Every structure is written in structure tokens, then in C-alpha cells.
Amino acid sequence: MVHPNGRIKCEANGGVRYDYGMDKQSEPDEKIDIEAIMQQIRQQILETKQAAGHETAPSIPVQGKRLPAEFYEHLYYAGMTYDQIGVKMNVTAVPIPIIGKVIEAVRTKIHELVLFYLNQTAAQQIKVNHHLLQALSILSEQLEEEAE
Hints:
Elements (H helix, E strand, L loop, with lengths): L7 E5 L3 E5 L13 H18 L17 H13 L18 H48 L1
Antiparallel strand pairs: 1-2
Helix pairs in contact: 1-2
């Protein structure tokens, strides 16, 4: 939303406010670079995520001159979700009288066993995702440095 002083205010991440300076006096013919504003928002969200206890989160560039903006957008989304792997237990009720509760208990134990091994695999995948994301980040930074 546009604040009365002509600056754009954006509330995200639990009330954190970001201020993207847009002068009220700017010419109507002046083109607004939405991608630049989005890159600033993404950078501040990533910084907030790292400050909020995700110290192991890889450092992710959100803009550059050599690679297309879509690359950095995908890199940003990968950085936001690389560690969000999880499966919840979902055991449905068995409507059979007398033995229904026994079947549910057996199904619950089987689901717990499957989730145990699945969570171990997910933890390994998170590590792989982290390393791949870090490698892409380093590669994009190196390409940008070579372009200069």
C-alpha cells in the first residue's frame, strides 16, 4: 500500500515493515521497475530469515546483470523452501466394530515406521539441497564478477 508520504509500505514476515522509496513527486511517465522492487523485498526477507535463527541458510544473491531475473527468482524460492520437507502422519479411522481400533493401532505403528525412515531420507535431502543451492549461489556470484 502507498503511505501518505508517497512511500510504499509492505508488511511481511510477522509484521516486519519494509520501505521502498517511491517519491510522490515522481513523473507519471517514469517507468517503475517492479523487478528491482521485488529483488529488494526478496533480499530483505532472506536477511530476516537468516537473522531469525536460520544461520545455516545459504547466502543467496537475488539480483545480477549477467543472468536473467527468472534465474534469481527461482534461486530465491529455492532458498526459501530448501529445508521444508516433511510428511505428516495421516491414519484414517476404520469403521469396523470391535477390530477397528486394533487395525487403526497397527496402521499407526506402520505409518510411524515409514515416517521414521522417510524423515531420515528427508534430512539427507535437505543437506543435498543446501549444498546445491550454495553451489548455484557461488556460481552466479562468480559469473557476475567475471561480467564486471
